[in-house]
DNA sequence: TTCATTTCTTATCCTACATCAATGCATCTG
DNA sequence: CAGATGCATTGATGTAGGATAAGAAATGAA
């Protein structure tokens, strides 16, 4: 599973094998069971998690005990709480495993070392930040204006490959609606003969 | 008004006067009237706008012709569409002036030049990106879970100094509610003897 | 000033979505 | 395999906030 991270990483940053090897000493990989919590609200986020196999999610829990899913991360995605990590402050987020998953733990030492030896890593990281902003802004925009149905349709086109793996109540949580409403939306779409797959 | 940008910029990046001077050739400042549109949806965003005096906003217009305000920027703030600018793609956003305002137009040449000569600029820019992400994520979270009233209360504490300058219907648009609802929320708060100022 | 335009409020009715509750299925687990 | 647990669906009912309309108040222009 470290291999798949290496492949991923080199595809993004053009580091040589030697360069990559020279900074991997703090990288750890681990298999975790479905349900394992990797980051708790209140903790300071010390790692980014690269998913080599499986599925993770990040979410908040509000004063009423309700979960709000912020993000999903399947194979070849990295998930973390960048704010907490960068500003060294307690995280708002939980991160846990939706499926049994194989993870590479990326710590700050690795990030810093990579940034030091590679321009392309820095560029890549910058691009990732911009992508993240773009994605969040689009989501804000949808939450401001779109109906439950529109948001769901947007979700299944963007995350087509994940829609079957993620339980519906989590999709509902991501969309900001209840599972019951999502069920009704889907029923309505089916009635209108909509075929997602 | 270039001066106020210089002050702002040096407070964030520790460039010397000479360094700053050496890259200012493409900077332009301009006064624009209330209502002036600085960026149109569909355009590629070529500048960031530094506000030395006045107030700008960015917003989208959806299929039904409804505005959704994404951001406000008053004195000593920079506003732009980073995604459009960075990825060189058509912007989703409009940016226009809520008040008569004095603006410094910052183009990519300036940014690139600054990044080239100053580590602290790069760091500062990176911090700004992380702040942006943190702010957007918080907003997503509020939109997913909080009531109109909670969102309004959050707004007036965070943007206390702006609440009196921004028309209520724009605040409503930022919060994702109608002006009528905001009016009712305010009435309710007043009844419960809530004192914002 | 005065007239016009924009913004804010209020009132009535309406709808999208939430809440609550019950049932049917899967799937785990001992 | 029987029971427990979790998830999706469905139905009945409630509600926050939207739509519409109209008047009041503020702002602005002439």
TrEMBL record, chains A, B:
Pfam families tied to this protein: cNMP_binding (PF00027)
Keyword rRNA processing: no
Top-rank taxon: Bacteria
Family matches, as InterPro entries: cNMP-bd_dom, cNMP-bd_dom_sf, RmlC-like_jellyroll
GO molecular function: kinase activity
Keyword Transferase among UniProt keywords: yes
Domain Cyclic nucleotide-binding: 14-109
Stored PROSITE patterns: CNMP_BINDING_3 (PS50042)
Protein name: cAMP-binding domain of CRP or a regulatory subunit of cAMP-dependent protein kinases
